[in-house]
Write a structure and sequence with these properties.
six-stranded mixed beta sheet, 14 strands, Chloramphenicol Acetyltransferase, 14 helices
Length: 488
């Protein structure tokens, strides 16, 4: 139940919301710690096959003012410490690495501008831009610097432009990336007044790296007595109520077995040659209200309708190739964020499910997905990967890479990240669409949907070795989306 506020309390204004976001951003990165999950992503990376790079493509109605865009980034990196920090490994690999200030940080190493070459790539702005974005995303980040890069791409038709942002997954997850992007956007073309001084974040005291490493070691050593106490506590429960303890252990073990590989469905025979080295990007979009209407008509959520559209596309693709299938193993990140969680970082768990590709009726498909997702969210072992991360991080990085390859048990991974519900601007240019492209950690197809100002922006990263006819696959996905939208 939602608590009522004070009588006649005014609704927060956009200015109030900005102040709250800026205050939260100034706290991002002050502790300098890296979580066990972030450590696993950092140490197990084998670029590009096991890349942890997230890329965002922002379409703009016009080219923003370069000096103003530069100043906005200067302000943002001054406010958010994590954007000017690099990763430092401990002298002894007994715990996670830490984030430390990059004493040689220069903005020109992270922000630049470029122009599309009219003779480079396929015809049309969007295909050329996607080809450029593929190359930008596949270029590895410098692991000795803060883990982000941005580029303003000019030269599009009618004076339009694009802004690309690339960052490492250990910095933040998809929702944190949206939060980071929102810092350099405003609600009008005019300059945003009353911004706090960026020196507030720049002058915030950091933590000595040696102290950080000591804290990490103490935290790791402190886990032993905690685990011992939990064991003793569980033993007491066994003695006092053996039936309850036994039931809980059986439920958790069964849940753990369901949440971990082997995959919940046979893999597709069409996606077996994946290597993860040839990224091919594609985009689709629709009105958010249409997808929401379709979901409501089928008694599901927007996410259920989105997943149903993707699976409908895959059904068509397999039928065109004469290989119809009933189910397909897919992964779905589940956000573990709470309303009071700080900005940034990674708060998600990965869930494997059998996608009902063979259900031809889109309404029935949404219903099946709805039941499956609700069951997954209630699994006691949903964050099972997080349980093993501390142990894996004590082993050589190759072990972590092998553990990360367990994601290859899925043929497709699909995420859904809510974005800004209102129109926004970047240094005077209107942001028309924002597409996100996740990495390919062993899967054949990575899909990410971001909502922006009433539009659903769906970005596809497809393994070009596993899928030779990418254009055919994208046509099938478009038909699957149209099929679901027709419900509403």
């Amino acid at each position: 139940m939602t608590k009522a506020g004070p009588p006649h309390s005014p609704a927060p204004t956009p200015a109030d919301m900005n102040q709250q976001a800026w205050a939260a951003a100034a706290q991002w990165g002050l502790d300098g710690s890296m979580s066990e999950l972030e450590t696993l992503m950092w140490r197990s990376e084998r670029h590009p096959e096991l890349s942890s790079t997230i890329t965002a493509l922002m379409l703009l109605d016009t080219a923003p003012e370069w000096d103003r865009l530069w100043a906005a980034h200067e302000w943002a990196v001054g406010l958010v410490r994590r954007t000017r920090e690099r990763v430092q490994e401990p002298f002894l690999p007994v715990g996670p690495p830490v984030w430390v200030e990059d004493s040689s940080f220069k903005l020109e190493n992270h922000l630049r501008r470029a122009r599309l070459d009219p003779g480079d790539g396929p015809a049309g702005d969007i295909p050329k831009l996607l080809a450029y974005t593929e190359r930008f995303a596949l270029a590895p980040l410098n692991r000795n610097r803060p883990l982000w890069e941005a580029v303003l791409v000019e030269g599009l038709a009618d004076g339009a432009a694009a802004y690309l942002l690339k960052l490492h997954h250990s910095v933040t997850d998809g929702l944190g990336g949206v939060q980071l992007l929102s810092l350099v956007q405003s609600r009008t073309r005019d300059h945003t007044p009353d911004k706090p001084s960026s020196r507030a974040g720049a002058s915030a005291p950091g933590i000595n790296p040696a102290v950080l490493v000591s804290r990490q070691l103490a935290s790791r050593l402190g886990q032993a007595p905690d685990m011992l106490w939990r064991s003793v506590k569980f033993g007491g429960t066994v003695l006092s109520d053996p039936m309850q303890a036994g039931d809980e252990a059986v439920r958790f073990t069964a849940s753990l077995r369901r949440m971990m590989p082997p995959p919940p469905a046979p893999p597709s025979p069409l996606f077996t040659r994946r290597k993860g080295r040839n990224w091919r990007f594609g985009v689709l979009e629709c009105e958010f209200k249409r997808l929401r209407a379709a979901a409501k008509a089928a008694s599901g959520s927007v996410n259920d309708a989105y997943i149903a559209a993707l699976l409908g596309g895959l059904r068509r693709y397999h039928e065109r190739h004469g290989s119809p299938i009933e189910t397909l193993p897919m992964a779905m990140p589940v956000s573990l964020r709470r309303g009071d969680d700080p900005m940034g970082g990674n708060k998600f768990a990965g869930a494997l499910l059998a996608g009902p590709v063979g259900v031809s009726d889109p309404v029935e498909r949404i219903a099946v997905i709805r039941g499956t997702v609700l069951t997954l969210r209630a699994e006691p072992a949903l964050d099972s990967f997080g349980l093993f991360a501390p142990l894996v991080n004590l082993l050589p990085s190759g072990v972590g890479a092998a553990a990360w390859r367990l994601g290859a048990a899925a043929d497709m991974s699909a995420s859904n990240v809510p974005g800004l519900p209102f129109k926004s601007f970047l240094a005077g240019a209107e942001v028309q669409r924002i597409f996100a492209f996740g990495p390919l950690p062993g899967v054949a197809i990575m899909v990410a949907m971001t909502t922006h100002a009433g539009a659903c922006c769906i970005g596809f990263n497809i393994d070009g070795d596993a899928v030779e006819d990418v254009s055919v696959l994208m046509d099938c996905f478009a038909e699957g989306l149209d099929e679901v939208l027709a419900i509403g």
